[in-house]
Design brief:
Elements (H helix, E strand, L loop, with lengths): L2 H40 L2 H27 L14 H29 L7 H28 L3 H30 L4 H28 L6 H14 L5 E10 L2 E10 L5 H18 L3 E9 L12
Parallel strand pairs: 2-3
Antiparallel strand pairs: 1-2
Helix pairs in contact: 1-2, 1-4, 2-3, 2-5, 2-6, 3-5, 3-6, 4-5, 5-6, 7-8
Length: 308
């Protein structure tokens, strides 16, 4: 795969990811309106907490849109390695917003606990909320899939957050059903508190995953193994490959290593081996950036990736 092909694919992926981010904001606004209507119909603090989290979804969607737009900007003099890490900042901010939302929900749950009240039109309100939950479930699965396909931390974090919202919404609806059937109005604020705690847990997970990316986390086990297999297979003519290092920066993957060749090998022949390895790696890992340091055989360490 040549550089032109990689750039074209990246541009196409960028347009798709940005379009998905725009849809996310629109859907988040729609779901917010539906959930707030469910709260107005019932007066339930648990449904209010569900609607409050949707406000976070709207803000997070806007931040994700900004982040993916920045991340697809081409490399420049000030950012020679590109802007792909911008998406991690989006995920971190989203995690912080989730934590703030959970604290606000806990506040409302406490007040409702002190003065519990029965819901108005509970069945209608829960049905309205159910529609919003179904929309969220569908879109969360789309975001998670697109986030993985395009190695987009922003879309993946947004999808996981919305999926957590779906889980809590289902729990809220089930609990409110029990409250309506039994008359235990105290369940309403207790459910709201549980929603807040679950949101807090998800927020921490989002922040932790994003911080790992900002700290130049290496490829995971299967991908790292596959990179080494490709290098081993395509390095024919070299004597040894060692000091293989990888790191992830958003959708970009950086791979670097030292390749030992016979001292008598010409620069041109060594370059052919490098091109063969780069083409093979980039053919399997889109947006991979490969850096190879060629060394003479005196630098061999007799360790590292075997050359087949």
């Amino acid at each position: 795969m040549n550089a032109a092909t990689i750039t074209m694919s990246d541009d196409e992926g960028g347009r798709l990811v940005k379009r998905t981010a725009v849809y996310t904001v629109a859907i988040a606004c729609l779901v917010l309106g539906i959930k707030y209507l469910a709260y107005l119909v019932t007066g339930s603090v648990a449904l209010f907490s569900d609607a409050l989290e949707s406000i976070v979804n709207v803000v997070a969607g806007l931040i994700a849109l900004w982040a993916v737009t920045v991340s697809y900007k081409p490399a420049d003099a000030d950012h020679p390695f590109g802007h792909t890490k911008a998406e991690y900042f989006s995920a971190v901010v989203e995690g912080v917003l989730i934590v703030l939302a959970s604290l606000l929900i806990l506040r409302e749950a406490w007040y409702a606990y002190l003065e519990p009240r029965a819901m108005d039109a509970p069945l209608l309100g829960m049905a309205i909320n159910g529609v919003a939950t179904a929309i969220n479930a569908f879109w969360a699965s789309v975001l998670i899939r697109k986030g993985r396909e395009h190695r987009s931390p922003a879309l993946d974090a947004d999808g996981r957050h919305i999926m957590a919202d779906v889980v809590t919404s289902v729990g809220v609806l089930a609990g409110l059903g029990v409250a309506e059937a039994t008359g235990w109005v105290i369940l309403d604020p207790l459910l709201a508190a549980l929603v807040a705690l679950n949101i807090l847990r998800e927020g921490w997970k989002v922040v932790a995953a994003s911080l790992s990316g900002l700290m130049d986390q290496a490829l995971d086990g299967p991908d790292d193994t596959r990179v080494r297999e490709i290098i081993s297979t395509m390095a024919e003519g070299a004597l040894e490959v060692h000091d293989v290092r990888t790191r992830i920066a958003g959708r970009a993957i950086f791979i670097e290593f030292h390749m030992v060749v016979p001292s008598a090998m010409s620069v041109g022949d060594a370059h052919v081996i490098c091109d063969r390895i780069e083409d093979a790696v980039q053919g399997e890992f889109l947006n991979a950036r490969v850096l190879i340091h060629v060394e003479p055989e005196a630098e061999a360490k007799q360790i590292g990736v075997p050359v087949l």
